[in-house]
Amino acid sequence: MSVEKKASIKKTERKAAKSGAGKTATTFFGFEPYQAKRGEEYMSPRQVEHFRNILLSWRRELMEEVDRTVTHLQDDAGTFADPNDRATQEEEFALELRTRDRERKLIKKIAESLRQLGTGDYGYCEACGVEIGIQRLEARPTATLCIDCKTLDEIREKQMV
Ligand SMILES: [Zn+2]
């Protein structure tokens, strides 16, 4: 894309943002950052809906990913007679299995977040109870700790090593 074109797009973006019709900044999976109304309470029904949509599309994405991995593993199984090829293949499988394991854990976390959305516990720090905040949740929809507790947690983890 040419520089001028980029610049002109930027200008349009700015204009759009000013008029309040900006559709430029996106967050997780192309969701627009949540615009809270003045005086809107934290985790209002509209916010709950917003995060439910984010979590559901994320989960859908991950599940498709898991499906692809499974199909891939099945397709490739037993296609190599050469031991060297097999070794490489086994490494690939191990890597894919780890990825799948991570995805499965994430799917579990998402399910837990969805459950919390239903019970009204979503968006509050597990450790200290403060609001985690919309911005942080949009970046990490499964966050269960506020940024302060998360930072403390990480410091403690480092000290244990
Ligand atoms: Zn906290």
Biggest sheet, open or closed, and with what strands and sense? none
User: Mean pLDDT across all residues, rounded?
Assistant: 82
User: What is the rounded distance between the termini?
Assistant: 48 Å
The low-confidence parts are: 5-24
Q: Which radius of gyration do the C-alpha atoms yield?
A: 21 Å
Strand residue content: under 5%
Structural class: mainly alpha
Task: Say how many strands there are.
Answer: 0
The level of helicity is 55-70%
Cofactors and ligands: zinc ion
What's the order of the H and E elements?
Answer: HHHHH
Shape: elongated
Q: How many separate helices?
A: 5
Characterise this structure:
By secondary structure, the protein is mainly α. It is 66% helix and 0% strand. The chain contains 5 helices and no strands. Helix 2 (45-76) runs antiparallel to helix 3 (83-119). Residues 5-24 have low confidence and may be disordered. Bound molecules: zinc ion. The site of zinc ion (ZN) has 8 residues, from helix 5.
Keywords:
single chain, 161 residues, mainly alpha, 5 helices, 0% strand, binds zinc ion
Report a brief summary of the structure.
By secondary structure, this protein is mainly alpha-helical. It is built from five helices and no strands.
SSE topology:
Blueprint: H1 3-19, H2 45-76, H3 83-119, H4 134-139, H5 147-160
Helix pairs in contact: 2-3
The structure holds zinc ion.
Residues 125, 127-128, 130, 145-146, 148-149 line the site of zinc ion.
